[in-house]
Write a structure and sequence with these properties.
The structure holds two protein chains of two kinds.
Chain A (H helix, E strand, L loop, with lengths): L4 H5 L6 H4 L12 H9 L8 H4 L7 H9 L3 H11 L3 H7 L6 H4 L2 H4 L5 H15 L13 E5 L3 H12 L3 E5 L8 H4 L8 H12 L4 E3 L10 H5 L3 E4 L5 E2 L12 E3 H10 L17 E5 L3 H12 L3 E5 L11 H9 L3 E3 L2 E8 L3 E14 L5 E5 L6 E4 L3 E4 L3 E2 L2 H6 L24 E3 L2 H4 L4 H18 L2
Parallel strand pairs in A: 1-2, 1-4, 2-3, 4-16, 6-14, 7-8, 7-14, 8-9
Antiparallel strand pairs in A: 5-15, 10-11, 11-12, 11-13
Chain B lengths: L2 E10 L2 E7 L1 H4 L7 E5 L7 E4 L2 E3 L2 E7 L3 H7 L6 E2 L1 E6 L10 E7 L6 H10 L3 E8 L8 H7 L2 E6 L6 E2 L2 H11 L4 E5 L2 H8 L8 E5 L15 E4 L2 E4 H4 L2 E3 L5 H7 L4 H18 L5
Parallel strand pairs in B: 9-10, 9-13, 10-11, 11-12, 13-14
Antiparallel strand pairs in B: 1-2, 1-7, 2-6, 3-4, 3-8, 5-6, 14-17, 15-16
Helix pairs in contact in B: 2-9
Classes of the chains: A alpha/beta, B alpha/beta.
Bound molecules: flavin-adenine dinucleotide (2 copies) and FE2/S2 (inorganic) cluster.
FE2/S2 (inorganic) cluster binds next to loops of chain B.
């Protein structure tokens, strides 16, 4: 097996057999003592490499130094100067590719656990009284923010702190974007998402839920604001396009996760929204979204297969997430691809073909080619299929604003300042970059908000 | 944020009309669009067509069939619901067609007034045909006879108006005069059968599809339908589509994903109501 068990050991996880029975958080935070000890490992490099790996430019050595000195309050202030969602980022950022990946200690041994420290400080502040950052005097300018995912929330906080009057429009009944409807409770408790969003709202930001921009608010009404930030995300689910895909029991990962995370279908009938409780579930895909879907299905009591077309070492998911899934008993079937979903009207199985790995393709990974003939085929008996093969930019709003330039895949085109083809309209997050990460969404949103602040001076 | 019910009336057997104070929906709503509502914190998101607007108010008309619609039917003026989002979906293709026929079956009749008025306002001649199983299930007759140039009423059992189906009247009209566009809104099976009538003369025919939805904004794919062999999301690409391209059997199959859960949910609601005593009576 190529997913290393070490990744899991280095985390502070509840035992797998216990955690698969509930939706409570898997990874446990650091205690004060262990946080201080971990912080003391930081060498305080004069030219810190970690900082350059942070999309929102947190002064990492400085906040860690405060922890080492037992000054948790100061550490929180330093963090929140650059990042208003530290408890979220501490939990879901792929630190191994960012700050921690660059930590000098990582060359010879383990990098400083920057993510765990960030989470520790944020959790400490939440328990010991949250400080609201200062807000500049009112500028009298009105800015509209579309979407309340990490991009929209970050833009709103930057803009509000600069003294603008900010209104966020969100089409769903809850703020947070993917952090609320996509990422499951056991990785990111909703209580934490709500608390961090509330902090941004306490800067005086007006949040209007159930408002679909382009519909409830027309594009003319939107463009009448002094400036606009669009952070509508990459919420359009792709389907494989194979036979049987519309059978009852086939879900996009977005639908499955929304039903459970946002609508609480896991506790039906206490909540009204249903979801099919599969006894045997096939998840198709190998990214973080696939891992989340598989782990949710597992917690609902199913036997879960994860079908991925390349090799285990090619899995695009974070190594830690894949390792967690394996530990929880998800069966990985790599080098295989579904060809047909069986059943009618309900799903009864999924037919797959094994894949041979051939020469490298343009992504530098071996190209999967189906094994021909009967020997390549196999069938799994499942009653639910979840497709987690990717999402595209949310097309609704972008298509309703005349003159807004979009790329081939439907993403909004922006320049290096986050500005779109319309002078006072900016965009950031997944709608501009394509599906990425929470912190990248925040980074691009912060940049765009700074450009807006500059423009409105 | 909660939204206030301004008026709630039973207008036909188990069919209710509710006006909700929701300026963000009312101000920009067009024919063919819908709202998604959630009654309370533990509620499901369900789609309902915008039947009319008046200033800040939005009217929905629904039949109490399951948990959420039954719960909605128990609300009275002054009560609130947790969420109403909209307007959602593409507006109807309202343009100068010439002569239009708008057909409503059962609770689908509720979708016609806003459509008929918009069509007529820009100079179309509008013929309305409405049908229900029997007289007690008919609705909005007065409003529709005012909104249409001509209104024909049908009942399956002959208890009022023409004894037969809207499809019979439609066929008759198609023989008598040129018809330029037809809308058929009602249960899937009724839309499927009625739209066969316009096939021979290839009259442009719209139907409003009602698959199970979750977000209603194009982010989940629950509402996917097959139109001319292509997958479309009814909530953002529709809900109105060319009737002659719809895969009806696929639609009807996907409307029946959760029969057991729906039954359980409704039963629980009734039980709960008994235990708490009728709140509003
Ligand atoms: C299951 C899953 C797990 C993930 N796990 C991780 C992880 O562990 N770590 C990580 O860093 N990243 C993860 N990601 C990716 C990350 O969540 C996204 O990159 C990030 O949320 C993008 O932020 P955003 O603000 O651009 O968009 P979103 O979070 O998608 O938010 C967009 C918001 O805009 C709203 N909206 C859309 N259109 C309109 C409109 N017309 N009017 C009003 N509102 C509108 C939407 O309802 C939504 O709330 C995951 C993604 C998924 C799906
Ligand atoms: C675009 C659109 C417009 C609609 N307009 C109207 C309307 O104006 N008046 C009206 O009475 N009905 C309308 N419907 C149907 C209405 O949404 C369902 O009757 C309602 O969701 C039933 O909810 P329930 O909890 O009362 O019943 P349930 O017991 O949950 O379900 C009864 C039936 O309703 C359907 N249904 C259940 N949940 C959903 C859901 N989340 N989304 C869609 N359908 C569902 C199912 O096919 C089911 O068999 C519309 C549906 C769509 C998609
Ligand atoms: S209801 Fe979710 S995409 Fe249409």
């Amino acid at each position: 097996m190529s997913i290393s068990a070490d990744v899991v050991k280095s985390m502070n996880n509840r035992p797998a057999e216990e955690r698969i029975l509930d939706f409570l958080e898997v990874e446990q935070g650091l205690s004060e003592e262990s946080a201080v000890l971990e912080a003391l490992r930081c060498m305080g490099c004069p030219r810190p490499r970690c900082k350059s790996g942070c999309p929102v430019n947190i002064d990492i050595p400085a906040f860690i130094n405060e922890i080492a000195q037992n000054n948790f309050r100061n550490a929180a202030r330093l963090l929140k100067k650059e990042n208003m969602l530290p408890a979220i980022c501490g939990r879901v950022c792929p630190q191994e590719n960012q700050c921690e990946g660059l930590c000098i200690l990582g060359i010879k041994s383990k990098p400083v656990r920057i993510g765990a420290l960030e989470r520790f400080v944020a959790d400490w502040e939440r328990e010991n009284g949250v400080e609201t950052p200062d807000v500049a005097p009112s500028t009298g300018k009105n800015v509209a923010v579309v979407g309340s995912g990490p991009a929209g929330i970050t833009a709103a906080s930057e803009l509000a702190r600069a003294g603008h009057s900010v209104t966020i429009f969100e089409s769903l009944h809850k703020a947070g974007g993917v952090m609320s409807y996509g990422i499951p409770e056991f990785r990111l408790p909703k209580e934490i998402v709500n608390a961090e969003i509330d902090q941004v709202l306490s800067l005086g930001v007006d949040l209007k839920l159930n408002h679909i921009v382009g519909r409830s608010i027309t594009s003319e009404e939107l463009l009448a604001y002094d400036a606009v930030f669009i952070g509508t995300g990459a919420g359009l689910p792709y389907f494989m396009g194979i036979e049987g895909e519309n059978l009852n029991g086939v879900y996009s990962a977005n639908e499955f996760l929304t039903r459970v995370n946002l609508m609480h279908a896991n506790v039906f009938p206490e909540y009204d929204t249903p979801v099919i409780q599969g006894s045997s579930v096939a998840v198709v895909g190998g990214g973080n979204v696939a891992m989340d879907s598989a782990r949710v299905a597992k917690r609902m009591g199913a036997k879960v297969y994860l079908i991925y077309r390349r090799r285990e070492e090619d899995l695009p998911a974070r190594e830690a997430e894949a390792a967690n899934a394996i530990e929880e008993g998800i069966e990985f079937i790599c080098c295989a691809n579904p060809t047909k979903i069986l059943g009618g009207p309900a799903v009864s199985g999924i037919e797959c073909v094994r894949m041979n790995m051939c020469e490298l393709d343009e992504s530098g990974r071996p190209c999967p080619v189906p094994v021909e003939g009967e020997e390549g085929k196999f069938t799994l008996n499942v009653d639910v299929v979840i497709e987690a093969i990717g999402q595209g930019p949310n097309p609704l709003l972008a298509s309703l604003i005349p003159g807004l330039k979009r790329g081939k895949k439907g993403n909004i085109i922006v320049d290096e300042n986050g500005r779109t083809s319309i002078h006072h309209v900016f965009a950031g997050g997944d709608i501009a970059t394509g599906a990425a990460t929470v912190i990248e969404a925040m980074g691009t949103a912060k940049k765009a908000a700074q450009s807006i602040n500059e423009m409105l001076k | 944020m909660a939204y206030t019910i301004k008026k709630a009336t039973e207008i036909a057997d188990k069919i209710f009309e509710v006006w909700i104070d929701a300026p963000h929906v009312a101000h920009n709503a067009c024919a063919g669009q819908f709202v998604v509502i959630r009654t309370d914190e533990s509620g499901e998101r369900i789609p309902l067509t915008i039947s009319a607007t008046d200033g800040d108010l939005v009217r929905i008309v629904f039949m109490a069939v399951g948990k959420t619609t039954t719960q909605l039917s128990d609300l009275v003026s002054g009560d609130t619901i947790q969420d109403i989002a909209g307007p959602l979906g593409q507006p109807s293709e309202v343009k100068r067609w010439g002569r239009c026929v708008v057909i409503g079956g059962g609770v689908g009749i509720a979708c016609l007034p806003i459509l008929a008025r918009e069509l007529k306002a820009i100079g179309n001649e509008v013929i309305g045909i409405i049908g229900a199983r029997n007289e007690t299930l008919l609705l909005l007759e007065d409003e529709l006879s005012a909104a249409c140039d001509e209104l024909v009423i049908c009942t399956d059992d002959g208890s009022k108006g023409f004894h037969g189906f809207p499809a019979d009247i439609l066929k008759q009209k198609l023989e008598e005069k040129t018809i330029d566009a037809v809308w058929i809104i009602g249960p899937a099976i009724m839309m499927k059968i009625t739209s066969i009538a316009t096939l021979p003369k290839k009259v442009k025919t719209f139907v409003s599809l009602n698959p199970i939805m979750v977000d209603g904004t194009g982010m989940c794919g629950s509402c996917r339908v097959t139109i001319g062999g292509e997958t479309k999301f009814a909530c953002v690409d529709g809900p109105e589509f060319d009737a002659h391209l719809v895969d009806w059997d696929g639609l009807m199959q996907r409307q029946r994903i959760y029969p057991e859960q729906e039954r359980q949910s409704l039963e629980l609601y009734h039980e709960h109501k008994c235990r708490c005593g009728e709140k509003h009576e």
